[in-house]
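Run folding on both entries below.
>entry_1
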Amino acid sequence: MSGAIALEGLDLAALLCSRVCHDLISPVGAIANGLEVMEDGKDEETAKFAMDLIKKSAKTASAKLQFCRLAFGAAGSAGAQIDTGDAEKVTRGLMEDEKTKVVWNLPRVLLAKNRVKLLLNMMLLAGQAIPRGGQLTVDQLGEGDSIGFRVSATGTNAKVPQSIPPLLAGGSADHPVDAHAIQPFYTGLLAKNCGLSPAMAVEGDVVVVSAR
C-alpha cells in the first residue's frame, strides 16, 4: 500500500507490550480490589462476593495471558510450529462465553507459528465486529503451505470498525499506529509474512475476516 507505515522493531515491541498490558489491567485490578474488600469485609456475604470476584478475574487474566502468549509472543524458537488444537483451546478460553459461541472447523495440525498467530489475531478482529456477542466460525482456505483462513462473525448489528481495513493494509497518515491500533496493524504484518492478503468486510449480514 502506498504510504504504508513502517515501524522500527523497538516501536512495534513497545506497542504490542502496551496492548497486552491494557488487556490485563482490568482483571488484575479487579483481583486487587477483591483482596481489599476481603480485608475490609466484616461479614460472610461480603467475603463471598470478594472471593467470587477474585476467582472470576483470575480466570479472565489467565485466559488472556494464555491467548496473548500464542498471539503475540515467540511461542518457541525461530521456525517453530504450533498445534492448531492449542490455538483452539486458548481461543475458546478467551472468547467463548454465554454470549459468544466459537465454531472451529479446522483440523488439528501443526502449522508455522506465524500462521497460527495470524489466525488468533484474526479472531480478535472478528470479535470486535460483534460487541454484543454472536457466533465466530473459523474455516480453512486453501491447502498445505499456502493455507489461509476465514473467520465469519455473526451477531446483532455486526459491523466492521472503520479503522481496521486501512490498518490491515499497513496504516497511513490518516490512520496512524498507536497502542489502540497496533493489533490490526500487526495482523497485517503477520499476513504479509505468510504471503497472504488480509481483508475485513461485510458479506450480507456477516462480517468476514479473511487471509488468502
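>entry_2
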Amino acid sequence: MREWLDQRLPSGFLPEEDQGLRLSRTSITGTQSSLERTDQARTRSKTILSKVPGVQYTTSVVGFSLLSLVSNTYSAFFFVTFKPWSERTKPEETIHRDQGEY
C-alpha cells in the first residue's frame, strides 16, 4: 500500500503547481495592536485582495496565528481562493513558482 501511495503523492513539501488556494497572513499591525486595529487591517487587506486578478474570494480569521497556533490581538490570516483555471487565462492570474510568486 505504501509503495502505491509513494507513487501517487507529491514528493515535495510545497505543490509544484497552482492549487487554486493560498494561505496568507497580515503583518501590518504591531504586537501591541488591539483586536479592533487588527480587524481594520484585515478589512483593508481583504479589499485589496478582492481586486487582485484571478482571486475569487477570501476567507479570513482575526485574533489567531496559524503559524504559532496562539490566540492574540495582533494576528490575522487569509485563505485566498482563486477562480477556476479555465477562468484564469492571463499570466498574472496564475501562481508562478519559478518567479518566486506563490
